[in-house]
Write a structure and sequence with these properties.
Elements: H1 4-7, E1 13-18, H2 24-40, E2 45-49, E3 78-82, H3 93-98, E4 101-106, E5 118-121, H4 128-135, H5 143-157, H6 167-177, H7 183-192, H8 196-207, E6 210-212, E7 217-222, H9 224-230, H10 240-245, E8 252-260, E9 263-270, H11 276-282, E10 286-287, E11 291-297, H12 300-314
Parallel strand pairs: 1-2, 1-3, 3-4, 4-5, 7-8
Antiparallel strand pairs: 6-7, 8-9, 9-11, 10-11
Bound molecules: guanosine-5'-monophosphate and manganese (II) ion.
């Protein structure tokens, strides 16, 4: 285990970053670490360098301090990479490269480590938020910090539904609930609630989805044209891939949207028989056994053919 406060001793400038297109766990883990360090290390400049999180996370304490682009060439004394490998942090990467000390806190099985000075990479952990909790001096936890970690955990466990939820996860959650916050509201507003437009795009994608491999694989695609027509972005697709995965008989779900012309961002979900992190890694991406992603160039037909060839190998 890493002694966070000891590792930050003497530091004047600290940065915290996470992966591009941050999800609930990424936002929860980075913001929990931010709240903790600003509270425990008075007088130290702590900055979160992260792409703008989805609007549902705007109420997290400190979210308005997030730096979403940067021009100064700050050299940080300590740089944390949370819920990601270092080369997936987007605009923050040059700052990572210049930092004096680097620390990686992650739970992706595809993260092979060996890049940062210090690492806490635990693929069995439910979430990066759970790992941040592990490393905290618990006396600094307050209601807002508890809520922030809780938010991260519910997002990466699908509200305690996925197999990454362990007895330890639930023990941590029990500790967090002691702080007393409106968790049903938090779950509804950050996890389940969708705008009307998001519901429409979900409906349309399901309606147009196709089943392959005798119903074991479901595929949903959103083209650039459709994104422009509905005026939606990647933030509006959260949950679509899970909806495809829970179709009866489906072992692997593929959701892709056209990020750039003839370049698809792919999300993969598995019921457990297929290790989709391996499939994603084959295409230069990564993730977990049951949830992973990558980018694929070409037409969507090519992308589907290439992906299903890799999936079929495992089935
Ligand atoms: P999602 O499908 O929700 O975007 O991502 C599922 C999981 O795979 C997340 O843990 C995410 O961090 C990871 N992931 C998604 N896309 C990529 C990628 O392009 N590269 C890597 N290394 N991981 C990814
Ligand atoms: Mn995560």
């Amino acid at each position: 285990m890493i002694d966070l406060l000891k590792e930050c001793e003497g530091a004047k400038q600290i940065a915290i970053s996470g992966h591009i297109r941050p999800d609930g766990d990424c936002v929860g883990a980075t913001m929990a670490l931010y709240q903790y360090l600003t509270k425990a290390m008075k007088g130290v400049r702590v900055e979160v360098l992260l792409e703008t999180p989805p609007p549902v996370f705007a109420d997290i304490v400190g979210a308005s301090d997030i730096i979403t682009e940067k021009r100064e060439d700050t050299v940080y004394d300590v740089f944390f990479v949370v819920d990601s490998v270092p080369d997936r942090i987007g605009f923050a990467y040059p700052y990572f490269q210049r930092a004096k000390k680097t620390i990686n806190i992650d739970h992706h099985i595809s993260n092979e480590g060996g890049i940062c000075d210090l690492e806490y990479i635990v693929p069995d952990a439910s979430s990066a938020s759970e790992l941040v909790y592990d490393l905290l001096d618990k006396t600094y936890i307050d209601t807002e910090l508890a809520k922030t970690i809780y938010t991260g955990i519910i997002h990466d466990t699908g509200v305690f539904q996925y197999s990454n939820t362990s007895p330890k996860t639930m023990r941590i959650v029990a500790q967090l609930l002691e702080y007393g916050f409106d968790f049903p509201k938090l779950i509804e507003e950050t996890f389940y609630e969708k705008t009307y437009l998001q519901s429409q795009i979900l409906g349309r994608t399901l309606l147009e989805s196709i089943l392959l491999m005798e119903g074991q694989c479901a595929v949903g695609v959103v083209s650039k044209k459709t994104m422009e027509f509905y005026d939606v972005s990647s933030k509006d697709f959260e949950g679509i891939v899970n909806q495809l995965r829970i179709i009866k008989g489906v072992e692997v779900a593929i959701f892709m949207y056209e990020q750039d012309t003839l370049n698809y961002k792919v999300s993969l979900r598995s019921g457990g028989r297929v290790d989709v992190s391996k499939v994603a890694q084959y295409f230069g991406g990564g993730g977990h056994v049951r949830a992973a992603g990558c980018n694929i160039s070409g037409t969507y037909r090519d992308a589907i053919n290439n992906l299903t060839a890799q999936i079929e190998k495992q089935l």
